[in-house]
Write a structure and sequence with these properties.
There is one protein chain. Helix content is 44%, strand content 17%. By secondary structure, the protein is an alpha+beta fold. The chain has one domain: 2-Layer Sandwich (Nucleotidyltransferase, domain 5), CATH 3.30.420.10.
Length: 158
């Protein structure tokens, strides 16, 4: 019996008040320590933003980087996690459904970063009204980027 590897993927999603979700950012990280979580937050979220997280200690130093930090203790709240932090749970659920439907669950560790990038690209453009412009921007990005070989793709380190 083969054991599937466990991947840790951190998700940040913009919350629109009073309701709705904006853009998403996702990244595979090696562990759930502050050394992995804080750089993700700093690279993904505008300074001075309000950060809502669970009570995991890896987020404790976020305020030192100019963010206001609100913690939700999921075990003390009495509510299921998907009610306390609906955005990240919805995105995680949609990502899993997409991987199962599109890739038939055959998620390769060496390609995971590219799957996350593809899903993020699609999610962030889900309500775009100018589909032709999206295609134009995709072609423009492809032409401005240097070619990447398959060997370079599969040898990517975290």
């Amino acid at each position: 019996m083969a054991i599937s590897p466990i991947f840790i993927v951190v998700i940040a999603i913009e919350i629109h008040e009073p309701m709705g979700f904006g853009r998403v950012r996702m990244q595979r990280i090696p562990d759930a320590s502050a050394d992995s979580l804080v750089p993700f937050v700093c690279n993904s979220v505008e300074p001075e933003s309000n950060i809502l997280t669970d009570s995991w200690r890896g987020y404790d130093t976020i305020e030192k980087f100019g963010y206001s930090h609100e913690k939700v203790n999921l075990s003390d709240s009495g509510d299921p996690a998907h009610l306390s932090l609906p955005g990240v749970h919805r995105v995680a659920s949609l990502l899993k459904r997409w991987l199962l439907g599109t890739h038939q669950g055959a998620v390769s560790e060496k390609h995971l970063d590219y799957y996350l990038d593809e899903y993020t690209f699609c999610f962030n453009r889900r309500s775009a009204s100018a589909r032709g412009l999206l295609f134009y921007r995709l072609l423009e990005q492809a032409l401005c980027s240097t070619p990447t070989t398959y060997r370079e793709i599969v040898s990517k380190e975290i």
